[in-house]
């Protein structure tokens, strides 16, 4: 099967263009890598990404960083990854508008947040991976579904989560910061 990469980074696609593009890609069977970084697709475009991810079974890499996506759009993407899509492996979302609700939806997809022991903040000994979220109620769709496995590999996303004194915080994943589409392409070789 042939695979195609589409790089549309910084093309000012905006939300309406993002919606149209994602609708066209619902059942497209050749696209494996899509870069929509810095395209201002916003929440409406992210909702279309959600629909695309529920139908598309070939997309492996999706760059959506710096797109003005707020909580609603981020939660829609998380829901698609949790319930429908199993092919996406590499995802960038840093530079969007994360809030605690969006963090609670995404953190379980990465195996839960890391817990920072405030007495050991300066050393790596203070970081611990955990599988559940504490405090703040809810736990998101992943917790409701009873899922605590890692759906996305932490080294293939540009965001990560920590808890500090039971507050959930999103951070940029420096390990992914300078990667490009090669992250998912390498997985297939």
What can you see in these coordinates?
The chain is of the alpha/beta class and 189 residues long. Helices cover 30% and strands 17% of the residues.
Short descriptors:
single chain; 189 residues; alpha/beta; 4-stranded parallel β-sheet; 4-stranded mixed β-sheet; 6 helices; 8 strands; 17% strand; globular
Q: Would you spell out the secondary-structure blueprint of this structure?
A:
Layout: E1 4-7, H1 14-24, E2 31-35, H2 42-55, E3 61-63, H3 71-83, E4 90-92, H4 100-106, E5 114-116, E6 127-129, H5 140-144, E7 159-164, E8 167-172, H6 182-187
Parallel strand pairs: 1-2, 2-3, 3-4, 5-7
Antiparallel strand pairs: 5-6, 7-8
Helix pairs in contact: 1-2, 2-3, 3-4
The Rg value, from CA coordinates, equals 16 Å
Helix content: 25-40%
**Span between N and C termini?**
14 Å
Structural class: alpha/beta
Regions with little confidence, pLDDT below 50 for 5+ residues: 120-148, 180-189
Strand percentage lies at 15-25%
What is the count of DSSP helices, taking H or I runs of 4+ residues? 6
Order of helices and strands: EHEHEHEHEEHEEH
Biggest sheet: strands side by side, in what order? 1-2-3-4
| Sheet of most strands | 4 strands, parallel
Averaged pLDDT: 78
**Strands, count:** 8
Write down the overall geometry.
globular
């Amino acid at each position: 099967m042939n695979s195609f990469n589409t790089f549309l980074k910084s093309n000012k696609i905006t939300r309406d263009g993002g919606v149209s593009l994602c609708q066209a890609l619902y059942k497209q069977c050749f696209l494996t890598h899509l870069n929509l970084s810095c395209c201002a697709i916003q929440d409406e475009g992210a909702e279309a990404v959600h629909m695309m991810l529920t139908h598309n079974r070939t997309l492996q890499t999706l760059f959506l960083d710096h797109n003005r996506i707020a909580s609603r759009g981020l939660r829609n993407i998380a829901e698609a990854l949790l319930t429908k899509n199993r092919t996406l492996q590499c995802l960038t979302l840093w530079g969007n508008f994360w809030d605690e609700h969006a963090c609670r939806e995404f953190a379980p997809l990465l195996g839960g947040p890391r817990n920072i022991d405030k007495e050991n903040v300066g050393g790596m000994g203070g970081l611990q991976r955990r599988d559940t979220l504490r405090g703040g109620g809810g736990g998101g769709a992943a917790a409701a579904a009873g899922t605590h496995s890692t759906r996305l590999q932490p080294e293939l996303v540009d965001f990560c989560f920590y808890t500090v004194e039971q507050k959930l915080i999103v951070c940029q994943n420096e390990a992914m910061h300078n990667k490009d589409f090669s992250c998912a392409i390498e997985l297939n070789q």
